[in-house]
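queue> holo job accepted (pyridoxal-5'-phosphate)
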Amino acid sequence: MRYVSTRGGGEEEGIEEALRRGYARDGGLYVPKTIRELEEGELERLSRLQFRELCTEILLWFASEELSEEEVRGVVQSCFEGFSSEEIIPLTMLSGRGAPEDGSVLVAELFHGPSMSFKDFGQQVLCKLLNMFAQKKKNKISILVSTTGDTGPAAIMAARGLEALKVVVTYPHGQISKFQELQMTTEDANNVFVYSFQGGGDDMDAPIKTLSTDVSFQERHGLAAVNSINIGRVIMQSVHYFWSYFRAVEKLKLPVGSSVDFALPCGALGNAAAGLLAKKMGLPIRRIVCGTNMNDIFHRAISSGDFSRHDKMIRTLSEAINIQVPYNFERIIYFLSGGDHKLVKDLMGRMSETGRIQVEGELLQSLQENFASQRVTDEEMLEASQAQRSCMLEEDYLMDPHTAVGYAAIRRSVLLWRAPGGACKDGNVVLLATAHPCKFEDAITEVGRGGRERGGWRRSDLMWVRGRRRGGREAVAQGGGRGSEGDLCRRWERNGWRRTKRECDRRASRSS
Ligand SMILES: *Cc1c(COP(=O)(O)O)cnc(C)c1O
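queue> job finished
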């Protein structure tokens, strides 16, 4: 497979260069030159594969010219050793009061990897491939990552101890959870370097881009950018759409080929772009329902074509998606426009000059056909968590605040679609659960407080959350996680748990 820039400049590259460079030479993003579409009957065949086989096969479609099947198989094997679930991505069906009346919501848990967020998928594969390439050439690669909280830990856990890689991570001071911060700062592998900076989630994008497109600097330091501008992550993430789709139709007893909707919280749009890529390959995804928080640029783009940067990043409880300009929008418009380099170059040029573009005509129409979106406030997110918490006693389910943004988006979108004259009657939705709730203590505590009118957390809820979190700790322990991570969970249990409980007791005594 050859890779080209979304903006049409520079040269075609193979997968190794595309992964290593991150950005294309003309400042665009790499995309596969052609997208392999599924052949007749192929979906059926893929549906019977084990996760690792599916992953190997899809990766090979994108890399067969440069990598042997043996090599890809080996990389895939090493990537999923640290996962705590045998199925890699287990699916849980939600129904009942928290879910839309008819149709089902299936939660695909993408957080059973070593850092407990979906970003483990992309990072594991990417880092292991980069390491392999570097070892073959007997050189070294430095990975530069800025993180809104989950990319950093995922990159660190994927790259720690790999001989040919060095990882440098930066994160916005005070804007990630304590858990995430500790996941990074307690890492003592000697190829890992972690720094914090003052600013917002995407303030590091520009400097990283400057370094990554400075060819001489890049060569001198063997620099690679592994944020979701990296096509490797997008490719790998398309695999979890395939897998979740197959398990969902299986659970719903639908024939392979039936269409389903996907929903997810959206930040830099890497995951959304991966969904679109999977759809382009022929996976029957009807619509991708995107939840944004108040940093709603993608929601505005879908609703009215207004893709414009707001002056200020808004702090929210779902900080991993506090993104002002999602860089994968560029890939999305590339795919939607059928690979119109000129259009992409035009639009992106205008975006970087003026900070705003207006998407119009066919492109807007296509955006609206493929995506639906909702802007979700913290209150609505908490309410969705609450609704889902009240059914949780039957369902046994608690979401992290990002997944809850996706869930809130489903509740609103699907209800709209089902209204008289709405777009569809059935509505089976796969919700991508992007992180384990135990990573976001403050927000989860807030869910408990949010039920104020209803008396806050009930004791049974608390017991449940505790059990759930213990599940999280076990996940870390089983996941080959090290002592320090187990300690993190224990710490969380001690402090977070007490605080939540104190809050609960205080409310209980006040109301009695
Ligand atoms: C990164 C992240 C997202 C957003 O994913 P994008 O691919 O950047 O849109 C959502 N949820 C969690 C928990 C994340 O860490």
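queue> Residues 117, 119, 150, 228, 265-272, 320-321, 402, 434-435 surround pyridoxal-5'-phosphate (CB under 6 Å).
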